[in-house]
Amino acid sequence: MSGGFEAGIGTLLARIARHDPVLNCFTSVFAEQALAAARQCDLRRARGEPARPLEGVPFAVKNLYDVAGVVTLAGSRVLAHAPPAAQDATAVQRLRAAGAILVGCLNMDEFAYGFSTENAHYGATANPHDTSRLAGGSSGGSAAAVAAGLVPLSLGSDTNGSIRVPASLCGIYGLKPSFGRLSRAGAYPFVASLDHVGPFARDVATLALAYDAMQGADPRDMAQAPVAPEPASPDLSGRLPRLRVGRLVGWFTRSASPQALAAVARVAEALGGAQEVELPGTETARSAAFCITAAEGGALHLSTLRSRAMEYDPAVRDRLIAGALQPAAVVAHAQRVRSWYRRQVAQAFERFDVLLAASTPYPAPLRDHATITVDGREVSARANMGLYTQPISFAGLPVVSVPVLGPASGTVELPIGVQLITRPFAERLGLQVAASLEQQGVTGCRELGYE
User: Distance between CA atoms of 209 and 339, rounded to whole angstroms?
Assistant: First the structure.
């Protein structure tokens, strides 16, 4: 930061104080700790020590990440009086070790169960592009804070689309890595068999640096896949090999708005064209993902629901209870569908390197009684905004959601994202494609004037 890291953090904290009362991104701000960390960065620079990859970069985290000495809320009131975390989540530890400065925790749907960040306890997060609209969820605070320039980097989580949906609605970059790529240790779980952690940023380079910093085996996460780290950031020149690009149709276009379809078409054109491809059984896969989500989430919270149900957000409580009541046979069948669907996806990647789909079917809806149209019916945006993200999570694929700019400069059109989907553990390719699109001016984040 020019003028010193401490001065930069001071300016950023002042910006948060000015704008967060309207946007409601933060549930806590660590002003003194952030300024102290910035002073240490200034001292390192004064001593001539080598700069770390994220030296002095401010970041904030969805409030389901453990931060040492802070109660991990996961968007709830039920956990508000729990003991503070004894240590940072692994992802937070690794970003700090790379030089990043933690400035606060961010609002979310309670226990990550929703796509809107309308929290009954801590209020709704507003979309920085239009504060009357949804920021998306469940990582809405994380996406909105980056979109408004309150922080350049944040962490979210994605079970069924909770990174990609708010990235799309808020017009920023979001990375959902492969299932098992990054350690989830110290991140409060929602659905252990589907949960992912990942970053948001306003540019691909920062996204890749954060991803690189968080890679690596962690004995605290027993479910982490045994794969070697694959650095992404040194290879973001924008030069791409010849790619076989597929554009997902069928389920992924059936309820899409004209803007969503146009965004996918623009990305496809920039990549030299795309062949239409349909993934069989996607609607069934999404239904199976709903069943597994509800069952695992309900089981996790069952004992607390029995004694403290009225302390939950009503919209979340009812879905968790319904999930806990599902017959075991339904969940077992859903897991068989998951195995079958993964095979369909694997076959698609025998023909294609990258698959494209809209991140959301629509731009951000209005917050009051938000609905979207699916198959001609008005349905809840809170439950259904992940229409196109949920099947991809179900298969565990890595995705970069990129904010597509309209063809006319200066447009006031609301943003929307496109998913760049690659085979498992091919995050590096997805980030390369995102960098190329960014350099071509096809994607990018708008300056919104939150100074």
Answer: 33
- Residue 143 within any structural domain of the chain: yes
User: b/e for 62-81, b at 16 or more Cβ within 10 A?
Assistant: bbbbbbeebbbbbbbbbbee
Domain count, the chain: 1
β-bridge partners, 374:
377
CATH number at residue 252: 3.90.1300.10
Closest by CA to 406, choosing from 258, 274, 276, 272, is 258
Active site residues: 62, 138, 162
> What DSSP assignment string belongs to 17-53?
HHHHHHH--EEEE-HHHHHHHHHHHHHHHHTTPPPPT
* Residues in a beta bridge with 130: 127
Instruction: Name the residue among 419, 407, 415 with its Cα closest to residue 170.
Output: 415
Amino acid in the structure at residue 338: R
For 178, the domain range is 5-440
Distances in whole angstroms, Cα of residue 8 to Cα of each of 14, 49, 57, 104, 447:
10, 19, 9, 16, 18
Distance from C-alpha of 209 to C-alpha of 52, rounded to nearest angstrom: 11
| Inter-CA distances, 24 with 104, 145, 320, Å | 12, 9, 26
Q: Can you give the pTM of this predicted structure?
A: 0.97
Q: What does the alpha-carbon distance between residue 262 and residue 218 come to, in Å, rounded to a whole number?
A: 41
**Confidence band of 147 (pLDDT split at 50, 70, 90):** very high
Q: Could you identify the residue written with the tokens 């040492």?
A: 68
Q: Please give the Cα distance from 67 to 93 (Å, whole number).
A: 9
Calpha distance 202→91 (Å, rounded)? 19
Residue 281 has pLDDT above 70, yes or no: yes
Strand pairing category for 118-119 and 123-124: antiparallel
The closest alpha carbon to 252, from 268, 276, 273, belongs to 276
Under the banding of pLDDT at 50, 70 and 90, the label for residue 240 is confident
Closest to 145 measured CA to CA, from 17, 19, 25: 25
For 395-434, write each residue's pLDDT tens digit. 999 999 999 987 643 445 899 999 999 999 999 999 999 9
Q: Is residue 445 part of a domain?
A: no
DSSP assignments along 65-133, one per residue: B--TTS---TT-STTTTSPPPSS--HHHHHHHHTT-EEEEEE--SGGG--SS-EETTTEEPEETTEEEE
Note whether residue 182 is domain-resident: yes
Do the domain assignments include residue 60?
yes
